[in-house]
Structure to design on (192 residues):
């Protein structure tokens, strides 16, 4: 059924049927400051990098280090990530999400990736913290220079804002009511 008026065989039109209410949001978010985003980037060491390759969009998890306002990672000179040795527009994302409590944060870094030599920007001691999880020869160093860093912190809405009354009663015993859970996010205080 469409939302357009319909007409009967005599040409009389009837109003469209009422629309179903929009689904209610279950969480809300706050923007994080650039300083808080950088702090959270420095605390983590695994994220995801995305770019448009010759054969289409690519998205890969990487282990990284945040150093001197750069996302730095090591990769194999023979793998798909080696494409990033040439200046390439990328998006890097790191997050911490608690799906059960609907809490978390997400940081996006939009910028350019390019291959670099260890002595150009990065001391060997810094590189040792960007250890790849996979084995093999990982001597190609890629640095992402941010053009923009943005972040969001997700928090649950209160139970009254989140759940219609009829679904609150149908929750499983022992399962917390949304909005009643502890809203502290590991690694993120309310100062973010």
């Amino acid at each position: 059924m469409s939302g357009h008026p319909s007409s009967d065989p005599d040409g009389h039109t009837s109003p469209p049927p009422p629309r179903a209410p929009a689904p209610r949001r279950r969480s809300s978010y706050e923007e994080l400051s650039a300083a808080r985003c950088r702090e959270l980037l420095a605390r983590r060491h695994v994220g995801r990098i995305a770019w448009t390759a010759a054969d289409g969009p690519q998205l890969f998890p990487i282990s990284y280090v945040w150093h001197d306002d750069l996302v730095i990672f090591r990769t194999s000179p023979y793998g798909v990530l080696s494409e990033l040795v040439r200046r390439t527009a990328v998006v890097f994302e790191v997050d911490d999400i608690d799906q059960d409590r609907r809490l978390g944060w997400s940081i996006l870094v939009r910028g350019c990736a390019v291959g670099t030599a260890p002595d150009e920007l990065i001391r060997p001691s810094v590189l040792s913290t960007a250890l790849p999880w996979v084995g093999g020869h990982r001597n190609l160093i890629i640095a992402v220079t941010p053009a923009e860093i943005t972040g969001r912190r997700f928090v649950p809405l209160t139970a009254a804002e989140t759940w219609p009354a009829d679904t609150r009663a149908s929750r499983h015993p022992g399962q917390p009511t949304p909005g009643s859970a502890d809203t502290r996010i590991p690694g993120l205080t309310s100062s973010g």
In short: The chain has five helices and ten strands. The first helix runs from residue 34 to 43. The mean pLDDT is 76. The radius of gyration is 24 Å.
